[in-house]
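I would like you to help me understand the sequence and structure tokens below and explain how sequence relates to structure.
___
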Amino acid sequence: MFEHAVSKGHKRPIYRGAGLVITRAPDTGNNPGALYIKTENDEYLGKLLGTVYSGKPAPALDEIAANPLQVAIEYGKRTGNCAICGKKLTVGKSIDLGIGPVCAKRWGFI
């Protein structure tokens, strides 16, 4: 889903859900394309490079991998913010989806 977002022009994709914040490393950094995993409290847990995760245990990654849209919906309903951009959700449909329409399209959720 991160590669889809990047292909749609998203330069610094972020995903929030299940207590985690996942960001994609820049293509020009030390770990191009790696995903960095942190808690919602900004505690670094580890990185996912390809299919290999290294770091502290993060069982919520399995939950996200199994159904990223459902986890995004749950995050949005719990926080009232978009699971992608973090902005406050104000439109009923967006609140129900837990993700705004621009982010949902950019990430391939709709």
Q: What stands out?
A: The radius of gyration is 13 Å. The chain is about 35% helix and 20% strand. The chain has one domain: 2-106. The longest strand covers residues 44-49.
